[in-house]
Amino acid sequence: MSIFGSYMEQFDPVQHLVHGPTVKRNLTHFYTQLQQGEPVEPNRSVLPLTVFASAAAFWGLGQCSSSLFSSSQVAASVAISWLRTAMDVLEHVRRSASASLETVQASIIAIFLIYNIEGLSPKVRALAYSALCTAKDLKLHRTDDPSCMLQAASQAEVVDLEVRRRVWWHLASTDWSLALAGGPHEGTYNVNPKHMRVKRPRNISDEELESKPADFDHPSSEPTIMAYYLQRIRLSEICRDVADLLWAFDADEVSVGDIKATDAKFDVMLTELPMFLRWDEGNRTGYEHIDSKDVHMRLQRYTVHLMTHSRRCKFHLPFLLRASVDAEYAFSREACLRAARTVIQVQRELSREPRSLWIVNSRLCCILHLVFYATVALVMDLSVNRDADSGEARKKEIQEACNTLEGAKQQSAAAGMFLESLMAVMRKHQIKLKNHEGIEIESPAFATGAAEASALAPGFVDVFDGAQMNGEVSNNFEFEEIWQTYIDMDSSMDPQSWDALISDIENIYQGD
C-alpha cells in the first residue's frame, strides 16, 4: 500500500480519475486473491500495474525520500517493467473485448506516464485514441443519457457514476487540450461536445462521495481535490474554441477582433479562479492558510497557471510575427510575451518549493514542454523584433528558461533536445547568452547530456522497441534548416505556416 499511497500523494492531485478508497479496497482484494492462488481477471490487474509504475517512476526521477527502492536507477527499471506488463495486459483486454472502467483508467494513467517519458509520441496518441474508443464502447459518453443511465440507488452506485463522469471528462478535456499542443494533430479533436451527455464532475472529496447524496456539490470557491480538475476542463474548452477559430477562416481572415474575443476567454477564466488557485509571485495572501493544510493545492495552483498561460502563449504564436509589420497585431504580441513570461515566472516559483515537489515536476516532460513553448516565443520575438524593448533584459529571460532545461537534462533527454533546439536558433541569429559565471554560452553539450540521462535512467530513454528521445546530432542541422525556411517568410507567414514550424520542431523531438 506504500506505493499506492505515493501515487495518491504525487499524481492524483493532477489526474484525479480514480476513487481512492475504492481502489484501496480493490487492491486489498486483489492481493488476497493472489495469496490464495485464485485467478485474477486481466482488467483487474492492469490498474494496479499502471499505478505502481507511476509511483516507481516518481522515485526514478530523483525523489528518493522514503523510497522503497535502493536507487533511482532501480526505481526507473521497475517502473518500465511494470509499465510494459501493463501494456501487454491492455492489449490482451483489447483483443478479448473484456474492457472495463478500470481498463480506461489504467490507459489514461499509462498515457500520462509514457508522455512524461518520451513526449507526445505516436504511441501516446494511439493509446489515447484507443482509450477513447474503449470509453465509447462502455458508453461513458452517454453516462447521463436517460436512455442508458445507470441507477444510483446505492452509495457504491453513486460513486461509480461519478467516477465515470471523471473518466469521460478527462478523456474529452485531454482531447481538446491537445488541439492546442502542437504536433501533426494540431487544431483537431475527436470528441464532439454535441455528441455526449455527461454532467460535469462534482466539486467533492472522495470521502464525501461515499457518504453524501448524489446531488451534493460544493461551490467552486471551496477547495477540494477536484479544484484543478474542474479548471482543466474549462481550459480545454477554450483550447477547443481556439482550434475552431483557426480552422473557421483562412489565415488572413482571422481578425484582431476575433483574436481579442478569444483571448478574453483566458482572462475571464483567470479572473474567476477561486482565491486558493490564484497565483501572485511573492504574495501568498489569501491561500497561505490553505497551503498549510493541503500541500496538494500548491501543485494544483502551479499546474493551472502553467497550463493556462502556456496555452494562451501558444494561441498567440501564429500572430507574433505580424506585429513587426502590422501595428494591429501588437496586442497579440504583448499577450503572447506576457503569457510566456508568466510561464517562466511560475516555473521559477515552483523551483523554490521543497525538493519533493520541485525536483520531479521540473523533470516531467509535460512541464518542460510548457517551458519550451514559452522560450520559443521569447526567442522568436527577439530574432524578429530586435529593436523592440530591452534586448539585454529579454536575453536574460531566455537565459533563465534555458537554465531550467539545462538543470533538468541529466534526468530528461527531452530537456536536452529542447535546449539544443533553442540554442541552434540562437546561434543562427547570433543571440549570445551568459551562464551564471558570466561566460558566454555558445553551444551546450547536448550529446553528453543525453548520454548522462541514459546512464542515470536507461529505461526512461528507451521505453518500447528502441524508441529514443535523444535523437541524432544531425537533427540540430535539420532544426536550423526548418527554422530558417520559416523565418525567411517573415510577415507573410499565416497561422498554418507557423503551426507547421512548431509541428516540425516537435516532430524532431517526437521522432515522427
UniProtKB/TrEMBL annotation:
Top-level division of the source organism's lineage: Eukaryota
Name recorded for this polypeptide: Uncharacterized protein
